[in-house]
Write a structure and sequence with these properties.
By secondary structure, this protein is an alpha+beta fold. It has a single domain (3-84), classed as Glutaredoxin, CATH 3.40.30.10. The chain is 34% helix and 27% strand. It has 3 helices and 4 strands. The chain has helices spanning 14-31, 46-51, 78-84; strands at 3-9, 35-41, 59-64, 69-72. The chain has a 4-stranded mixed β-sheet. Strand 3 (59-64) and strand 4 form a beta hairpin. The longest helix is centred in the first third of the chain and has 18 residues, at 14-31.
Length: 90
Amino acid sequence: MSHELELFVAGDSVRSRAARHKLERLCESRMAGSYELEVIDVEADPEAAKRADIVVTPTLIRRRPLPEVRLVGDVTDEAAILAALDLDRR
């Protein structure tokens, strides 16, 4: 099963870097080769944030597999990430 993920961050802040690092590490350890991660900087691409209805960063969106799931705010909480990606039972 392939996961399609989007991580919306605001610039290159400490919080943005931490969210990206944590998510990349978890994806590689749990889904190596079966995920796509797009990181979108809402400061550089505000229209993408508008299209996705992003009001808080960081926000992780799991586009696939359906249903779509959003994790808003603390994207460094490993248990929350695993639950959002439906990997907490593996």
